Amino acid sequence: MLSKIITFAVFFQVKKHQQAVVSFLEANRISFQEVDITMQEEQRLWMYNNIPREKKLEKSNPLPPQIFNENRYCGDYEDFFQSKENNTVFTFLRLSSHSRHQNYESTHVDLCI
């Protein structure tokens, strides 16, 4: 029974992190694609193969969300959160300097969920 509780807690935390990233991207009109790695084995393998080695060593099994700009790895939720705290999220997402009047709809971010 304990393993089910832990699994549910991890699932809930992952969903909460995913929603935080999605909400930020939507609020800032940044075009993104959600890639559901639970349903697409090929996408899951692509995600794991494109996470830098040092990130894989930090965490034995990197959890979603993992964020990419095109095919370039940006980071995971913790990296995203730190960039928001440091007011560097647009640099983290590999976007040009943020302007309040700039529209990022032409930019494409992949969010592996």
UniProtKB/TrEMBL annotation:
Coiled coil: none annotated. GO terms for cellular component: cytoplasm; nucleus. Keywords: Nucleus, SH3-binding. It is found in: Nucleus. CDD domains: GRX_SH3BGR. It comes from the Eukaryota. GO terms for molecular function: SH3 domain binding. The keyword Flavoprotein does not apply. Its main location: nucleus. Pfam families: SH3BGR (PF04908). SUPFAM superfamilies: Thioredoxin-like (SSF52833). Belongs to the SH3BGR family. This is SH3 domain binding glutamate-rich protein like 2. It comes from Nothobranchius furzeri. The gene is SH3BGRL2.
